[in-house]
């Protein structure tokens, strides 16, 4: 199935959690000079104008990045402020929120000459948009399946590897396909840092992903979840989102907990953020 287009959801609360986590991880990795290969398995368009008919149809950004953007200048958390300052460089007007950048943009921004970025996108329309985006010269766009492409890339030529895996999970089988891709990648590059996004839906299908990773033998998996509200029997749609970071940088949990402590109340009084070790410390 290739029906999913992220433009309808650009800038929502799940994007904020995912990209803030990605930004924090990349910031840590850049403290060392050794080269990094970044891989984005489900890249999407790269940059989303918020005035398009797709984004305006649902306007999910108004319950995601919008309240955070409105609060900029009033926040005291250094990670949030740094992230928002970087976000500002993607805007047509520094004082107005006109665009929301996807993961290809966030990954491309800090690339150094020695680093590499491979972006996979299987949806033909989304790949066409991605190909038109202005990104770092080190960014390679590939039309194809990201999980299969990742398996074909590892091991990589650079000393370090960072991977973002965030499928749409339109198929239930994708949850276990992600487990297999993670396990294979780590068998090839033991110290790779892998980030996995997953949706929280009333059906609870994400538990197959979590259980599969628990049983995989992988040793260090940190988990965080952002809930917009507590679901009940009448709930439908995505009520929250989760992030897994495998081989997380030291101190990541504390930095993100502090940032989310400022961010979560802006998303509504019922919002809640929790983090824990799924496997490990």
From TrEMBL:
It catalyses: adenosine(2030) in 23S rRNA + S-adenosyl-L-methionine = N(6)-methyladenosine(2030) in 23S rRNA + S-adenosyl-L-homocysteine + H(+). Coiled coil: none annotated. The gene is rlmJ. The record marks 4 as: Interaction with substrate rRNA. InterPro entries: RlmJ, SAM-dependent_MTases_sf. Specifically methylates the adenine in position 2030 of 23S rRNA. Keywords: Methyltransferase, RNA-binding, rRNA processing, S-adenosyl-L-methionine, Transferase. It is an enzyme of class 2 (transferase). The active site is at residue 166. It comes from Halomonas qaidamensis. This is Ribosomal RNA large subunit methyltransferase J.
């Amino acid at each position: 199935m290739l029906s999913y287009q992220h433009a309808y959801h650009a800038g929502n609360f799940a994007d904020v959690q995912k990209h803030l986590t990605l930004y924090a991880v990349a910031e840590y990795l850049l403290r060392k000079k050794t080269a990094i290969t970044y891989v984005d398995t489900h890249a999407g368009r790269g940059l989303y104008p918020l005035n398009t008919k797709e984004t305006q149809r649902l306007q999910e950004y108004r319950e995601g990045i919008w309240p955070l953007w409105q609060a900029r200048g009033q926040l005291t958390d250094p990670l949030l402020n740094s992230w928002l300052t970087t976000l500002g460089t993607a805007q047509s007007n520094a004082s107005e929120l006109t665009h929301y950048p996807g993961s290809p943009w966030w990954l491309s921004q800090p690339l150094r000459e020695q680093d590499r970025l491979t972006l996979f996108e299987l949806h033909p329309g989304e790949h066409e948009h991605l190909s038109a985006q202005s990104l770092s010269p080190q960014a390679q766009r590939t039309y194809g399946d990201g999980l299969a492409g990742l398996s074909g890339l590892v091991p990589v030529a650079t000393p370090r590897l960072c991977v973002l895996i965030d499928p749409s999970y339109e198929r239930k089988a994708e949850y276990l396909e992600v487990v297999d891709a993670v396990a294979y990648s780590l068998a090839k590059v033991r110290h790779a840092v892998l980030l996995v996004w997953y949706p929280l839906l009333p059906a609870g299908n994400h538990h197959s992903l979590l259980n599969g990773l628990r049983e995989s033998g992988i040793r260090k998996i940190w988990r965080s979840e952002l809930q917009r509200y507590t679901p009940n029997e009448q709930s439908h749609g995505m009520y929250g989102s989760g992030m897994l970071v495998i081989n997380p940088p030291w101190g990541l949990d504390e930095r993100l907990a502090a940032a989310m402590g400022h961010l979560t109340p802006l998303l509504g009084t019922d919002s809640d953020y929790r983090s824990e070790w799924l496997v490990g410390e």
